[in-house]
């Protein structure tokens, strides 16, 4: 290869690596007629969470969206909020990735890329401002690893069932074991991720839409 072409190839490779590094996990909140549209991108880009799922550690994605009333000269006022969850894990028998969302909807994906594409689909929340004034939305996403017991209980909860830990029927020994498992997961230094985003401010003139 000629020296000039080799240099161009080297520069192109460096630019591609820099672009890949720049495309880290991101959370955005955009507005469509004052309705928030939440989107996450790049959650699985670095491969760490994919490796964890393949190793038997499911991921829990917990979203919290809040509507705030901006008040000049005063502390902003919390108006209302909405939370939702999703769990992603790898099924080794089928060699598929499984995504379980609030309401119990279950989807399967053949590859990690397909799962990431599903996670990047924008989510609209019908959280509306009431009354006149300046408003904005805040969104927080927490991604954490789960153990098998956590996965079973959270799956039941997502499907509308109440698990033993919620109903109080679980034994003390079971609760202590789950606590020890969670502690081991944290001590192991497994990656956790927290993302936050704020929408642009908008003026609501009052009345229902």
What report would you give on this structure?
The protein is of the alpha+beta class. It has a domain at 24-147 and 191-205. Helices cover 32% and strands 37% of the residues. It is built from 6 helices and 10 strands; from the N terminus they run αββαββββαββαααββ. It has helices at residues 3-22, 48-54, 112-119, 148-158, 164-167, 172-187, and strands at residues 26-32, 35-41, 59-70, 77-91, 96-101, 105-109, 123-124, 132-145, 193-198, 202-205. Strands 3, 4, 5, 6, 8, 9 and 10 form a 7-stranded antiparallel sheet that branches. A hairpin with a 3-residue loop joins β5 (96-101) and β6 (105-109). The relative contact order is 0.19.
Overall shape:
elongated
SSE ordering: HEEHEEEEHEEHHHEE
Task: Give me the Rg, rounded.
Answer: 21 Å
Q: Which percent bin holds the helix content? A: 25-40%
The residue-averaged pLDDT reads 79
Topology:
Blueprint: H1 3-22, E1 26-32, E2 35-41, H2 48-54, E3 59-70, E4 77-91, E5 96-101, E6 105-109, H3 112-119, E7 123-124, E8 132-145, H4 148-158, H5 164-167, H6 172-187, E9 193-198, E10 202-205
Antiparallel strand pairs: 1-2, 2-7, 3-4, 3-8, 4-5, 5-6, 8-9, 8-10
